[in-house]
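User: Predict the structure for this protein chain, please.
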Amino acid sequence: MNHLLPTGTAAETDARHLVHAVLPVGSFEQHGRHLPLITDTVIAETVARELEVAYPVFTLPPVTISCSHEHRAWRSTVSLSARTLASIVGDVYDSVTASGFCSLTVVSGHGGNYILSNVVQEASAAGRAMALFPAKEDWKDARRAAGLATSDHEDMHAGELETSILLYASPELVRDGWQHADWLADDRRDLLTTGIRAYTESGVIGKPSEASPEKGKALLDSLTGNFARLLALFDRHSI
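Assistant: Here is the predicted structure, written as structure tokens:
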């Protein structure tokens, strides 16, 4: 069964002697007609699960609602305020470090969570071991490694990248029609003011028709490999 929630026991977790915690942060927002509202949560949890297999990290349950205000025109979308999301991440950091973990990495599956960059910057400046992953450069590396046909700018939402990851990790969640759902809107300079509905009726901005499960696997493999640098960074700073 493909669980989105961790299923280990406390005893099993303690036996692994883990010191690095990972918090997936998704969203609950429209993703066109072919991807579910939980798409970003599935992606964040899938990346976190791959990290847990490859590295000695403890994966927490995902935050499933975050900052999706740009999708407000779709009534199925639900959002938290930026201050609430920041408080959640800060509280989780306090809790895991109080119980013996030495770092927290936030794995964000939603690009609209701008506040997370500020949260991590402020935490790091205060001497707290926190990171945000994947960085923009990690996504670019993954796109190159997977041979994606689109750039990160044109493939913004429910496009080639997101559809590929779900086709690989959770194909049962992908509805038919993704092969013909392409929509491009490269000039989005007023998106913060107007929301995404001003640029797309379907909710898609990108080319899901270019997606494949093989690309999804290659994307995840690249991201997993890039995570090693963060663990090395945490380990150096803890010496």
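The first helix runs from residue 10 to 15.
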